[in-house]
Write a structure and sequence with these properties.
By secondary structure, the protein is an alpha/beta fold. It has a single domain (5-121, 158-180), classed as Guanylate Kinase phosphate binding domain. The protein is 40% helix and 22% strand. The chain contains seven helices and nine strands. The strands form two sheets. The chain has a five-stranded parallel β-sheet, sandwiched between helices. Strands 4-3-6-5 form a four-stranded mixed β-sheet. The radius of gyration is 16 Å and the shape is globular. The two termini are 17 Å apart. The mean pLDDT is 87.
Length: 188
């Protein structure tokens, strides 16, 4: 039996990390579903996701050794998904990946069976979330919002999960999608 590769994307502030954490907690006992950790050149504990922190040098060495199935750069950080992804898929495990919208086309080239899932949030809700977290200045928030508009105008092929309500509403939609896709190469 095949496995699905679910590639979750969304703007910073869309709630992607919270939704993936929600789904991970709900599906943690299912041996047929795995959430891949990202390797990131960001200190441990920084940001909203449980990741493996690497220095720039460590990341470069792993790239050179071809230890990443997927890797990209965004906002001055480098991100990677380890080659263990291929073993999990080969064993029939559905793998959920925290991806990048800008890297989606490259990921699709490498994994044509990939199912993109876009966490979408209303523009005003996104602005409010970005401002409330206090990581960026209002000007930086506007820059992120403009970038989001540009990426949205490119169109999206895949499943869209709106995240404008409470965490459990969108979280359950993501859980249902992952369960539906578990163990299948294609799901719609």
């Amino acid at each position: 039996m095949g496995a699905a590769l679910i590639y979750v994307v969304g703007a910073s502030g869309s709630g992607k990390d919270s939704l993936m954490r929600y789904a991970r907690e709900r599906l943690c006992t299912d041996p047929g579903i795995c959430f891949a950790h990202r390797y990131i050149t960001r200190p441990a504990g920084a940001g909203g996701e449980n990741h493996v922190a690497l220095t720039e040098e460590e990341f470069a060495a792993r790239c050179q050794a071809r230890l990443f199935a997927l890797h990209w750069e965004s906002h001055g950080l480098r991100y990677g998904i380890g080659i263990e992804l291929n073993q999990w898929l080969g064993k029939g495990v559905t793998v959920v990946v925290n991806g990048s919208r800008e890297y989606l086309h490259e990921a699709w080239k490498r994994y044509p069976e990939l199912l993109p899932v876009h966490i979408e949030v209303a523009h005003d809700v996104l602005r409010e979330r970005l401002l409330s977290r206090g990581r960026e200045t209002p000007a930086q928030v506007e820059k992120r919002l403009e970038r989001n508009r540009g990426l949205q105008s490119c169109g999206f092929h895949g499943t869209v999960i709106p995240n404008n309500e409470t965490l459990d509403v969108a979280g359950e939609a993501l859980v249902d999608l992952i369960r539906k896709c578990s163990g299948a190469f294609a799901c719609a």
